[in-house]
Records
---
Amino acid sequence: MNSPTSKKPLTKTEMTAALAESTGLTKTQIVSLFDELATLIKKELGEEEAGTINISNLLKIKVVRKPATPETQRHQSIHKRGNHLQGQAR
């Protein structure tokens, strides 16, 4: 496991091993749990759902759906008058 001075996040393997050790579940069960959690998150954040999922005491994910911004014109350089670039729409 990572030492307190380490700046790197846990890898998937390290996280799986740590959770298996602390919960008494097998690594296969932990991986299965994460797969099902990912499936549930994708479903709940989908177009036809509320766009929010709250996992108690852990995290809350909310989708913000905004309309696309229109294309804009911008100057290439202050010193090159008349040169315009077409900004991409986002």
---
Amino acid sequence: MKHFINSYSAYLPVTIKEANWMFWKVNGHLIPENWNNTDIINMYDTYFAETWGNEDISSISEDNFAIAWETKNGNKQQNTISIQ
């Protein structure tokens, strides 16, 4: 079962892992621990628009992201986050 955050309006739900992937593609590391749900959603919406069709982004290694994600989260279930 996937857990979604409210992101990119109501049209494109995204998991916290997918939000971290978007952040990774732009910054090369995972979302900082101290970010709240609003920060994550605002980042995702902004980065989604900025990276749409950007071919340079497609060359970013998913393998390194997968390693970083697994190291940080292991097999923990993804949390559902939303703006209250």
